[in-house]
Amino acid sequence: MRLQLSAPSNKNIQKAIQITGSKSETNRSLLLQALFPNIKIKNLSNSDDGEVMQKGLLISEGEVDIHHAGTAMRFLTAYFASQPGKEVVLTGSSRMQERPIQVLVEALQALGADIRYMKNEGYPPIKISGKKLKQSKVSLPANISSQYISALLLIAPSLKNGLELELIGKITSVPYIKMTLGLLEQIGVSTSFNDNKITVEPLENIEETTLVVESDWSSASYFYSIVAMCEVGTKIQLSSYKQNSLQGDSVLSKIYQDFGVETQYGKNTMVLSKANDSLPNTVNYDLSNAPDIAQTIAVTCLGLGMGCHLTGLHTLPIKETDRLAALRTELSKFGAKVEIDAESLTLRPLSTLNSGIAIDTYNDHRMAMAFGPLALKVGLMVNDAGVVSKSYPDYWNDLKTLGFEIQEM
Ligand SMILES: O=C(O)C1=C[C@@H](OP(=O)(O)O)[C@@H](O)[C@H](O)C1
Ligand SMILES: C=C(OP(=O)(O)O)C(=O)O
């Protein structure tokens, strides 16, 4: 599906949008619920990634296909490996078969798991024969993906002696590890995280507990970008959000102050308002703690004629697509000068954007969603726009609610 996008006729937007639960919190909560069935969950994500996780958890033998969902791939690997009697082949999209999983597989094998590669060493698909994992200590590299660490932490309370992890190297995407520990604490598990050591105590039963998933902050990023590009006075209310979030992407409320956007919290809601138009020429951010908002920020800067130097992006090449290469290609179509290296992206300020551009999305929801707000500055097309369903199926409808003109071509 190719969409043609144009700006709302009124760039002083006053609207409210309800976003569903965080996909990261959802997939963690679902796994915990499979281990401790008296957990109840509210405000689940309606994303494809949440759906494949839910379906995957119901399967005990045969093939489990998690499509593009990184969290489902990593979390289910740990889950099936620790479940005696379950025998599955865990696979995913062709891109998923290029996303590395060796660090997690080796850590699980060290704990006693039976996992074999079906095609390429180090990558899905993998065959898992569930076993009781008897070991309780393991060390693993922490600089490739925090999802390997979260996967181990999620099954940790169900292991007889809990788990002690030693993290090697610089730890990436730290807030996602803290989110996992935060959810474990919410169900009554004792945890500690000091320097490069994490411990999780075992837990046999829990009281009936309801986990209320906060709405998705990565999805909220696109509204920060929209407000930043609208007229002063624009206000968009988003729900359900809170100031003390488990999600690291909530750093958006600080970052977007640089773009004149203020955040006010109410009861379960936040209002983003465009407060001023005085913008710096260029901004610098280290996004190693919030990699999923890199695309949003780069496109906001392009739209506002600002430059940016974004660092800490070493994980972007192994996400849904190589996001550094994809960003360079797509930003350049508008005439921008963009440089990338293994962990950073530099965009030079550009005053006039080329028009008539069609954005390629590379099976990456965030390529489509990040470029949507740019329609406020220049009409554009988005190819394969249905990719947004990976995390945010209602995205284009919500943009229509704001007044964007969106037509299928
Ligand atoms: O644990 C999670 O829910 C996630 C962790 C991050 O991945 P990495 O740790 O691989 O950077 C993030 O990019 C992803 O969207 C979700
Ligand atoms: C990287 C992402 O997802 P995952 O790794 O879970 O596929 C994302 O949603 O931006």
TrEMBL record:
The record's section on InterPro entries has: Enolpyruvate_Tfrase_dom (IPR001986), Enolpyruvate_Tfrase_sf (IPR036968), EPSP_synthase (IPR006264), RNA3'P_cycl/enolpyr_Trfase_a/b (IPR013792)
In which domain of life is the source organism classified?
Bacteria
**EC no.?**
2.5.1.19
Reaction(s) the record says it catalyses = 3-phosphoshikimate + phosphoenolpyruvate = 5-O-(1-carboxyvinyl)-3-phosphoshikimate + phosphate
Query: What HAMAP family does the record point to?
Result: EPSP_synth
Q: What is the lineage of its organism?
A: Bacteria, Pseudomonadati, Bacteroidota, Flavobacteriia, Flavobacteriales
Q: Look up the record and name the pathway of this protein.
A: Metabolic intermediate biosynthesis; chorismate biosynthesis; chorismate from D-erythrose 4-phosphate and phosphoenolpyruvate: step 6/7
Q: Please give the GO cellular component terms listed in this UniProt entry.
A: cytoplasm
The entry assigns this protein to a family as follows: Belongs to the EPSP synthase family.
Q: Could you identify this protein by its name?
A: 3-phosphoshikimate 1-carboxyvinyltransferase
Active-site residues, as the UniProt record annotates them: 292 (proton acceptor)
Keywords for the protein's UniProt record, in alphabetical order? Amino-acid biosynthesis, Aromatic amino acid biosynthesis, Cytoplasm, Transferase
**Main localization of the protein described in the UniProt heading:** cytoplasm
Protein role: Catalyzes the transfer of the enolpyruvyl moiety of phosphoenolpyruvate (PEP) to the 5-hydroxyl of shikimate-3-phosphate (S3P) to produce enolpyruvyl shikimate-3-phosphate and inorganic phosphate.
Which part of the chain is the Enolpyruvate transferase domain? 63-399
Q: GO annotations under biological process?
A: amino acid biosynthetic process; aromatic amino acid family biosynthetic process; chorismate biosynthetic process
Q: Which GO terms describe its molecular function?
A: 3-phosphoshikimate 1-carboxyvinyltransferase activity
User: Subunit comment for this entry?
Assistant: Monomer.
